Amino acid sequence: MSLAAAATTAVGAALFGADQASAACAALAVVFLATYAFRATAGRWLGAGLVLLAAAVASRLWHPVDVVPPPPGAGRAGTVWMVASLDGERLTGVLLLLALTVLVVAVHRLPGVRRSRWPVVAAAGLGLVPLVVAAAGLANEAADSRWPLPTDPWPLLVVVLPELVAAVLCAVVAVVGACRAPGRSVLIAGALTLEVAVVADLLRVADMWSLVTLVSTLVDEGGAFLLSTGVSVGEPTLADRLMDPDPCAALLVAAALIGSALLALAAVRAVPDR
User: Distance between CA atoms of 69 and 52, rounded to whole angstroms?
Assistant: First the structure.
């Protein structure tokens, strides 16, 4: 029953894509997956990790918005800049990091056997691919931004570091899952799918950081050449999604939910004692 409810709400989350309705549906779907994982003794830790993951998704419902006033002396030509607060992104990243930490412990506690090392090597290699993409994207974002300079990437890393470590932990889950039995392939697939979704969200946050710092720099410098333009880097509304659909947003939501569902399924299959 919980799995069917999760599937139903997951479809709603993917259809809404990247707005708050999607976050609410996705959080509810992950909660249903957590109750499904709790059915197995081996899935109790994994269920706890999924509950934290649901909290990370739900935190997007309360992301604040910062209002940056126009530069002094702009007069009527000045506009008010509406930008998403990076504090909300940090909160989501920290919750995501906590969720992945618990998931690593959960997968490590699943029954394991000594087998060929090649599945472990393959899982490690596949897990490195999204991390390389993330590193390249962050380096490009730091190089293209006006502030900070490429020689000082720390302000960017402060924002994305929790999700970057969470992506690394997804790869760790895949490697540890390669030693588990049964359901090893399901564990690996779930961890890698979730890693792809985390890396995609990490790059989105990095792009948001770039826009926020650009706006702040323009305001500090007087930015007269963009005073007639408004800037908004918040999540699109449902009306925006209907007028200008973005299939990538729906695919990323679906990837995160599929990864979570595969991990829950693997936990139940590991010890089918209930």
Answer: 36
Contact by Cβ (8 Å): 99, 46: no
Q: 223: pLDDT confidence band, cut at 50, 70 and 90?
A: very low
Measured at the CA of 103, the angle between CA 99 and CA 105, to 5 degrees, comes to 120
Residue type, 74: A
3-state DSSP assignment of residue 13: helix
Could you tell me the residue ranges of all domains in the chain? 2-270
Residue 247: pLDDT above 70?
yes
Those residues whose C-beta lies under 8 Å from the C-beta of residue 104, and which sit 6 or more positions away, are 169, 172, 173, 176
In angstroms, the CA 253 to CA 196 distance is 11
Q: What is the pTM of this model?
A: 0.84
Residue type at position 212: V
